[in-house]
Amino acid sequence: MPMKRYSEDHQWVKYENGRATVGITAYAADELGDITFVELPEVGLVVSQGDVLCVVESAKAASDVYAPVGGTVVDVNRALDASPITVSDSPESRGWICRLEEVDESELENLMSDAQYEEFLDEDETEE
Q1: Is the pTM of this model over 0.85?
Q2: Element at 106 (helix H, strand E)
């Protein structure tokens, strides 16, 4: 059964069958506005949890995307080369950024569940 978790940096990871699919959350996509460019990571790149995975750019800003878990990049979403706006339009499904293997499953425990992430966003909004 797939497990979806969220980082405080507004990345999500869906872990299933030893493979982690990574992207930015709807909240992050909304904050950035229309994504105009995604600098995808290289296949074969080995990242640790918290490392910069890639960069997404919008009319508002360029933003680093951090690896919610460590692993080896085995696949990237090449559709984003031609249509980076997909990250804005469908951040938590078609707008995925890359897939990782050789993931340390224990790192998933440091991340938030759906409910915890919703609570985190609510706390964030009340602080502003």
Answers
A1: yes
A2: none
The tens digit of pLDDT for each residue in 36-67 reads 999 999 999 999 999 999 999 998 889 999 99
Residue 55 pairs in a beta bridge with 39, 64
Cα gap 10→36, rounded to integer Å: 19
Please report, for residues 2, 55, 74, the alpha-carbon distance to residue 63 in angstroms, rounded to integers and kept in the order given: 27, 6, 22
Write out the residue range of the structural domain in which residue 72 sits. 3-127
Q: Any idea what the CATH number is for the domain that residue 63 is in? A: 2.40.50.100
Q: By C-alpha distance, which of 125, 122, 99, 96 is closest to 35?
A: 96
Residue 39 DSSP one-character state? E
Distance between CA atoms of residues 54 and 44, nearest Å:
13
Domain count, the chain: 1
65 close to 55: Cβ distance less than 8 angstroms: yes
CA distance 27 to 43: 27
